[in-house]
Amino acid sequence: MSSTVDRRRPVLLISMVAVLAVAIVAWLVWPSSGGAQVQRSTQGPYTVQLSVEDPHQGGNVFALTVTGATPDVVTLEPVMPQMGHALAPSPAIAEGPGRFRTGDVLLPMSGQWEITVSLRGPSGATQHVFPLLVK
């Protein structure tokens, strides 16, 4: 009886790993629900709301709303720490009081990204880091 159980353990372990791998792959490739992802952060004199419509591999446009102080310069820098990717900062262009928008920001691969929004103005400089899952 003991030898039968011992022979089944590797099969059971391999089966569990295979099921887990399939579940992870399905989660990564599952179509997103669409819609905007909106996040908010407050650092120093600035409160930043970042939104992006259905983050995906390729070009993404980010909209930023800044309240509190008024920054002179706003940039957005995507970083993927797990893979060691850091992309060049993209300027955000003012569309109106407290409203900024980037051009297409290229996210070359799916996975977990960190979007760093840097603000600089008469009230000081801050950085806001937002997690972003790209599918």
Structure, explained:
- The chain folds into 2 domains: 1-30; 36-134, Immunoglobulin-like (Sandwich).
- The protein is an alpha+beta fold.
- The chain is elongated, with a radius of gyration of 21 Å.
- The protein starts with a helix and ends with a strand.
- Strands 1-2-4-9-8 form a 5-stranded antiparallel β-sheet, with no helix packed on it. Strands 5, 6, 7, 11 and 12 form a 5-stranded antiparallel β-sheet that branches. Strands 3-10 form a two-stranded antiparallel sheet.
- The longest helix is centred in the first third of the chain and has 28 residues, at 2-29.
- It has 1 helix and 12 strands.
Summarize the structure.
With 135 residues, the chain is of the alpha+beta class.
CATH superfamily (homologous) name of the largest domain: Immunoglobulins
Largest sheet: 5 strands, antiparallel
How many whole angstroms does the radius of gyration measure? 21 Å
The CATH C-level class name of the largest domain:
Mainly Beta
Written as H for each helix and E for each strand, in order along the chain, the element string is HEEEEEEEEEEEE
> How many β-strands, per DSSP?
12
The CATH topology of the largest domain, please?
Immunoglobulin-like
- Alpha-beta classification: alpha+beta
Q: Poorly predicted ranges (pLDDT <50, ≥5 residues)?
A: none
| Residue share in helix | 10-25%
Total domain units? 2
Average pLDDT level: 90
